[in-house]
Write a structure and sequence with these properties.
Length: 77
């Protein structure tokens, strides 16, 4: 009984490559393109992304989205 065909394993390698290479690379690119108030916050995110590439990148994007959503809320008068 086989669970994975060769085509399935290739698909999994591609998914893992995207998760472990592309996601942290995009997070670091976005980090250096965006403006932070202090260099310490940028340095913190660099360490988080390097120490935990996939989880750190996801946390970075989630925090950026939450900050962006918080700043774009309009309050009716």
């Amino acid at each position: 009984m086989t669970f994975l065909t060769p085509e399935d394993s290739l698909f999994l390698w591609i998914v893992f490559a995207i998760l472990f290479v592309l996601l942290p690379t995009l997070a670091l690119y976005h980090l250096f393109q965006s403006g932070f108030k202090t260099k310490n916050s940028r340095l913190f995110w660099v360490f988080v992304i390097f120490l935990m590439p996939v989880v750190g990148a996801m946390l970075y994007f989630l925090s950026v989205l939450s900050i962006k959503n918080r700043s774009n809320k309009s309050f009716p008068l």
